[in-house]
């Protein structure tokens, strides 16, 4: 299945700075084919997924959906921590720092952010082992 996700933004240059920073941590390059009115990151669109930001097509104010969240996989717990810290440094808001949660499996390491427009993001790593990674 090929798919992509789009979040609306009220300030495209600000959103691009934020997403350039966090996708750099996740080693996801800017996708080709973006225009002045949108930007995207991820794998080759013909082979995988992509994440895009743009102003809403209906020209109304972009807002965050309650209960809506996009989750990005990481290669390690350290990458989850860098994602969270980088997001905060670039205008994001904390929605839950890096770590495990009692309501998930003990090997599921995750962090939560809001982007500058209020959209909720998650970065997660499966198979976390605290004996191998005590954290930074």
Distance between the termini: 36 Å
Catalogue the unreliable spans. Answer: none
Report strand %.
Answer: 25-35%
CATH topology: 2,3-Dihydroxybiphenyl 1,2-Dioxygenase, domain 1
Nearest-integer average pLDDT: 90
Largest sheet: 4 strands, mixed
Overall CATH architecture: Roll
Order of helices and strands: EHEEEHEEE
> Radius of gyration from the CA trace?
15 Å
Please bin the fraction of helical residues.
10-25%
Provide the spatial order of strands within the biggest beta sheet. Answer: 4-7-6-5
Number of strands: 7
Which structural class should the secondary elements be placed in?
alpha/beta
- Tell me, what's the shape? globular
Alpha plus pi helix count? 2
Overall number of structural domains? 1
Describe this structure as you would to a colleague.
α1 runs antiparallel to α2. This protein has two helices and seven strands. By secondary structure, it is α/β, with parallel strands linked by helices. It has a single domain, classed as 2,3-Dihydroxybiphenyl 1,2-Dioxygenase, domain 1. The chain is globular, with a radius of gyration of 15 Å. 26% of the residues are buried.
Features:
136 residues; alpha/beta; three-stranded mixed β-sheet; 31% strand; globular
Give a brief description.
The chain has 136 residues and is an alpha/beta fold.
Draw up the topology in text.
Layout lengths: L2 E6 L3 H14 L12 E5 L6 E6 L14 E5 L3 H13 L3 E8 L8 E6 L5 E6 L11
Parallel strand pairs: 1-3, 4-7
Antiparallel strand pairs: 2-3, 5-6, 6-7
Helix pairs in contact: 1-2
């Amino acid at each position: 299945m090929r798919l992509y996700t789009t979040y609306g933004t009220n300030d495209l240059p600000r959103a691009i700075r934020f997403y350039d920073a966090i996708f750099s941590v996740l080693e996801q390059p800017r996708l080709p084919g973006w225009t002045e009115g949108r930007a995207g990151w991820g794998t080759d669109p013909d082979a995988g997924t992509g994440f895009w930001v743009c102003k809403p097509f209906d020209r109304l104010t972009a807002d965050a959906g309650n209960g809506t969240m996009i989750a990005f996989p990481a290669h390690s717990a350290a990458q989850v921590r860098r994602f969270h810290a980088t997001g905060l440094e670039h205008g994001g808001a904390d929605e839950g720092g890096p770590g495990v949660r009692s309501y998930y499996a003990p090997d599921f390491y995750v962090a939560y952010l809001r982007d500058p427009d209020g959209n909720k993001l998650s970065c997660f790593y499966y198979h976390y082992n605290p004996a191998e990674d005590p954290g930074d």
